[in-house]
Design goal:
Helix content: 10-25%
Structural class: alpha+beta
Largest sheet: 7 strands, mixed
Strand content: 15-25%
Number of helices: 9
Shape: globular
Radius of gyration: 24 Å
Length: about 475
């Protein structure tokens, strides 16, 4: 992320239509026509315009705005409340009460989540509060910067103690070498309403939900999910959309960690008018799930182009990725992964930085294909861009094969000493469609494990109908099994 970006902190990604209009005014004063969303449910505004108005000239701005990376936005799963599966006692009002207790801007990453939902990651923070089965009590999973491993706080924490315990931990964490010492220091300084832990936190895996378009909550209420594939949200549209929300009693707009937003509480009698407004504005509200569930670095055009290349291949090969999530990152970046599959771009060695070289990538997947395990397995290393679609399609098949079977034997951790397997594929030079002999070509009635050499002479590309001669051989490096 560029240093000259203003970050608007939205406390759990929740803001009112009026607050969104304040953000729009701030962005326009910076000479922008678009805003971006960050991975921690914050709003990003590029700055640096010479004649832009200082923050002091916005006295009614009710949200915190920072330009320093040291401050963090609070992530929470309020966005999923009432629309996805949830812990019975945890509703939208409860989240808002907890968030309201935060009277300071945290420097540690704080997540406040429901373990029964999948839209918001549970453990991408440093203080991860996860709802328990006991009403108003939460587990706390700590991943402090100077600790090597994640640990569970010894007691359950009361809802209305979350803010003050978070602030106290932020103050004393550097002085605590382990969780027992941290617990003692917190109890010495605070009086809290704790509860004993009766059983360890257990998070059941469920596929990632589809969260876009107009959907019914129940009765006469609907919710709407909106997504821009380039993460550049037009201010003119957002202003008109905010006005619609204000005029139709929609109180909250919720940002997701997937650089999209959700609006809940749309009345049935307003649904048609909203659909008409979105259509006239040219807004697509039914993107394919192939491209919807991706996490990319902010304002990284190269990563966006790579995603589009992979998604195009998925679409051409009619691959299902429902329930999976994907991410693209730069190797060595200090960030928490929270996707099913992660593509890492390798660093260019210093010795060749003055020369143009083809980038290489690593492919990883979360243990048991569950991002909440917070453990990643290397599937392939140092591969070329052209090999990525085939590898990710293989992983999608592995995902569905093991779905519901979280056994260790399916997720043995790969080591660098294991020799990679090599597999030949053929790719159409016209449209980049891949023919993989292990998969065959169902549309052309070609059975799996049919070698390219054994294809009939009149075989044609299933997408562009190019002749067999247009296909070029490539080699894919796979992790050993």
């Amino acid at each position: 992320m560029s240093q000259d970006i203003l970050r608007v902190l939205t406390k759990g990604g929740v803001l009112s239509p009026g607050e969104l209009k304040q953000v729009i005014a701030l962005a326009e004063a910076s000479g922008q026509k678009e805003i971006l969303f960050g991975s921690r449910q914050d709003i990003l505004i590029p700055s640096g315009k010479e004649d832009e108005k200082p923050l002091e000239s916005f006295p009614d701005l009710s949200l915190d705005v920072v330009s320093e990376r040291g401050f963090q936005n609070i992530v929470c799963s309020y966005v999923s409340a009432d629309i996805f599966k949830n812990t019975p006692w945890l509703n939208g009002v409860k989240y808002l009460y907890v968030l309201e207790e935060f009277k300071y801007i945290p420097k540690l990453k704080i997540n406040i989540t429901d373990p029964k939902q999948q839209l918001v990651p549970l453990f991408s923070g440093q203080l991860n509060f996860v709802a328990s089965e006991h009403e108003d009590y939460w587990y706390l999973i700590l991943k402090l910067p100077h600790w090597e491993e994640s640990v569970t706080y010894p007691v359950l924490i009361f809802s209305y103690d979350i803010a003050k315990i978070s602030q106290e931990i932020e103050a004393i964490a550097p002085d605590a070498d382990d969780v027992e010492e941290l617990f003692d220091l917190v109890n010495a300084n605070l009086e809290t309403n704790n509860r004993s832990i009766e059983k360890e936190l257990s998070v059941a895996y469920e596929p990632f939900p589809y969260y876009e378009g107009m959907n019914q909550i129940g009765g006469n209420l609907y919710w709407l999910g909106l997504y821009w594939r380039n993460n550049r949200y037009d201010l003119k549209f957002l202003r008109a959309f905010s006005d619609f929300c204000l005029n139709h009693k929609v109180g909250k707009i919720c940002i997701t960690p997937w650089k999209s937003f959700v609006v809940k509480g749309i009345y049935e009698e307003d649904k048609l008018e909203l659909e008409k407004f979105l259509g006239k504005s040219g807004i697509n509200i039914r993107h394919s799930s192939l491209e919807l569930n991706w996490h990319l670095p902010v304002a990284d055009e190269e990563a966006l182009a790579l995603k589009e290349f992979i998604v195009k291949s998925f679409d051409q090969n009619d691959i299902s990725t429902y329930g999976m999530t994907f991410g693209i990152s730069h190797q060595g970046e200090n960030r928490a992964y929270f996707t099913t599959v992660m593509v890492e771009k390798n660093k260019t060695p210093n010795i060749v930085k003055n020369f143009q070289v083809r980038p290489t990538f690593n492919v990883l997947h979360s243990k048991n294909f569950d991002p909440n395990t917070d453990e990643y397995i290397v599937y392939a290393q140092d591969i070329d861009k052209i090999e990525l679609p085939g590898l990710l399609m293989e992983l999608s098949k592995m995902y569905f094969e093991q779905l519901g079977d979280n056994t260790e034997k399916n997720n043995r951790k790969k080591t660098q000493k294991e020799a990679p397997r090599l597999s030949e594929i053929y790719q159409c030079s016209e449209c980049m469609t891949i023919y993989d002999s292990r998969l065959g070509d169902e549309k052309a009635n070609i059975k799996p494990h049919t070698a390219f050499e054994d294809l009939p002479d009149d075989y044609r590309c299933s997408v562009c109908e190019g002749p067999k001669e247009l296909f070029e051989k490539a080699v894919v490096k796979l992790a050993s099994t």
